[in-house]
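Note to self: the last two entries modelled the partners one at a time, which told us nothing about the interface. This time every component goes in together.
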Amino acid sequence: MAQHILNAVALGSVYLVFALGMALAWSTIGILNFAHGATFMFSAFTAHVITQQVALPMPAVVLIAVAAGALIATLTQVLAFGPIMRRATEHRAAELRILIGGIGVAAIPLAIAERVTASAPFGFRGSTYQAQVFEVFGLRMTTTVLVIVVAGIGIGVGVWRWLATSRQGLALRAIGVDSETASLMGVDRATLALGTMATSGALAGLAGALLTFQLGAIAPASGDQLLIKAFAIVVLGGLGSMGGVIVGAFVLAGAETFVLAMNQGTWVDAVSFGLIFLVLLLRPQGLFGRKEVRRT
Amino acid sequence: MIDWYFSHIVLIQSTFTTLLLALSVQVPLRAGVFSFAGVGCYGIGGYLAAIGMVHYGLSTATAILLAAVAGGAVAYALGLLIQRLTGLYLAMATVAFTLIISVLVVNGGDLTGGASGLFGALGMLDTGHLLAVVVVVVAALTFTELGPLGRRIEAVREDPELASAMGIDVARYRRATFAVSGMLGGLSGSMTVLLRSTVTPDDINFHLVVLALTIIIVGGSRSWIGALIGTVIFVWMPEVLAFVGEWEDVVYGVLVAAAAVYLPGGVTGAAVDGYRKYRRKRREAAASPPDAPPPQQAAAAVGGDS
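The predicted structure of the combined assembly is written out below.
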């Protein structure tokens, strides 16, 4: 039992880092980035390619993945989302086109990674990192799990507090509420959007590196699955609430681990889909979201 | 010509079935309902047709009819359930609905064949049948795009509040688009499965949702013509892009992203805009006498009514 809880916490921490990146961009600058999953996958893939050439320690691998993620997301913003937002006249049309733009962008890294790996899973076998196994209170722990949980919870709480208390966080939340008024108050929307996307991409890269260390290998197509799970997490927590994302990530991971522990492996995916559906049906604003005041 | 037809018959047939799938997303989108329920009904229809043929020995026509009716009914019920959602939330709820169906059929036991799916559901279908179905569907949709009905649907999309102030029952229109989209999805799914003779849970995936959406966005979402153009582009692109070989998916991604940035109304939207611009230029050229003010001023004067 306790072992299952530990597994759920580790899984939840990875979900958290990934979903946090998505929620950050979505709830502030209004970009639901469908290339987030591909960013996650391609960051890990970049680190994989480099570790094949040079034997690197774990922190270096993680740093490479984080940098790659930030770079991919920045490029996505500069080449696709930025131009769409500049050209669009109304928010609803822009929303749809950002969705499509993200889908298009996501196809590119996926195709490259699938071509290079022939769709086979890839890992960091070239890295010098060896997981140490140790026992705490009769639980089997690895250093990887420890790193993941500390990083996940630390970053989760860090982003949440930063957004709630810092000046930039205030500016970002202001954009999320009313971008026009925010820019009248002197908020530089384009620069903040770029910074937010870079941060969001860095979080995707971090999640990619952590999950690959944890599982040993990930498949190129795993990004899409994670994207829908992240959506479930954000919807459950409530859009705009970073604390909600933290709760949502661990609830989803707990529910999935529970279904797995009950030996109902084929139903695992239904947890996130069912959660999206139920939450939207019963409480569309999520557990901690504020009720949106929007005309029509 | 006949040689060409027989060597491309799979592509030709999938053009028709994919068009129906794309229309199942385009019809709600035209009324401002961002729903992918049609894709889920594609899965329902496909499985129902296969189950009907394999387990109950239904005829091809009965199986397809059953799939279309069941798709419409399920989508209508779904529409009732989630009618208060809008925008991206509605989209994701219907995506979740679609993906739940694929999980359900994995766990369906002998009835759905589990993870390996169902085999041997070969229907008696040929290209003529497909063409007939598509022509009927397109004719019906054309009817909804013209005249007062077309204008009412446009009003529901552009400004639901205004529409209901004008006495249009917006909720009823939205529910109707769910039913139509479910029927189209059921038709497309059942015919695809009966042509291929197999159906597996992997056939109902996120990629299918993405395909339907990209077809409409690239082609244009205002009319079935856009869906047709998009379908032709995406079904035939692998054939045309054979020269780029393994990089086909990269080209696909670049095209979709470029369309999202530069073609807000899709190919048809760009064509309509281009035609209007051309007409306006000609009218100006005809209207302005030789010593008229320079064209920029004339354009500014006319620009008000564009």
